[in-house]
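About this split. The held-out portion is used to measure sequence recovery: a designer receives only the structure tokens and must propose an amino acid at every position. Recovery is the fraction of positions where the proposal matches the reference. Here is one held-out target exactly as it appears in the evaluation file.
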């Protein structure tokens, strides 16, 4: 039985075990305004890692690979969990770009913020659809989601 998706929650005491880094976070979409690609482009919605962009319990985000390697899982306050799957020409140093479905969501829900993210899992430089799906399909027996990366 497939249950409705819920956000995994780590108790505040558990969160303290993860490194915290202050970053500047902005938002992006798969559209031409963010990527220069229109829906008819063969690489539309495809990240640097090769996975398709998505806003889910574990969403795709862009980061500087020297700071957060591909596959790194971050907890971003006010956004949720992000998995580094993409890069961006303006994303250098301690900057991240969070995926949203629409530009309206980018501006209404996020904009540009300084946030303290938690590094839940350091990536190995690779990410596949299978790995991203696994993160988004974790369910506990009682229907809650479990963060087990």
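Reference sequence for scoring:
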């Amino acid at each position: 039985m497939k249950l409705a998706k819920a956000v995994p929650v780590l108790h505040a005491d558990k969160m303290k075990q993860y490194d915290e880094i202050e970053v500047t976070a902005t938002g992006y979409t798969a559209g031409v305004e963010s990527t220069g690609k229109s829906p008819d482009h063969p690489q539309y919605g495809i990240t640097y890692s090769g996975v398709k962009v998505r806003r889910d319990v574990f969403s795709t985000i862009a980061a500087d690979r020297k700071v957060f390697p591909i596959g790194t899982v971050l907890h971003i306050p006010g956004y949720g969990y992000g998995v580094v799957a993409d890069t961006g020409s303006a994303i250098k140093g301690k900057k991240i770009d969070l995926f949203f479905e629409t530009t309206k969501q980018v501006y209404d829900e996020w904009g540009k913020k300084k946030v303290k993210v938690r590094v839940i899992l350091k990536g190995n430089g690779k990410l596949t659809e299978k790995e991203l799906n696994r993160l988004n399909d974790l369910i506990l027996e009682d229907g809650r989601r479990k963060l087990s990366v």
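Annotator remark: Residues 24 and 103 are 18 Å apart (CA to CA).
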